[in-house]
Hints:
By secondary structure, the protein is mainly alpha-helical. It has helices spanning 6-20, 25-114. The radius of gyration is 45 Å and the shape is rod-shaped.
Amino acid sequence: MFDIGFSELVIISLIALIVIGPNRLPRVARTLGHLAGRLQRYVADVKADINREVELDELRKMREDVQQAATSFESSVQGELNRTESELNAAAGAAAAEAAQEAPKAAPKADAVTGKAG
């Protein structure tokens, strides 16, 4: 973050010792340490909140994608079922019509076999 070497740190410490004084320097250093710790915790909390929001947004998008895929799959299956049902109904209707047409033809043949007139 900051590119401060040991020599620069010694110079800053000497200036602080001269400006603040030897009596108040430990108290000021302790206070600065506490403030730096609070700042780090605050930054970590903000980062964690941002990460949670990003993950929540990703989960929402994923949920929407899954719901859209499920809806698409459901409509596809429903369409296929409707098409199959109509084909089966048409086949059953054709078979019933064919059976109805052959029923009168089958009756005289049966009469011809038994020898009775119809």
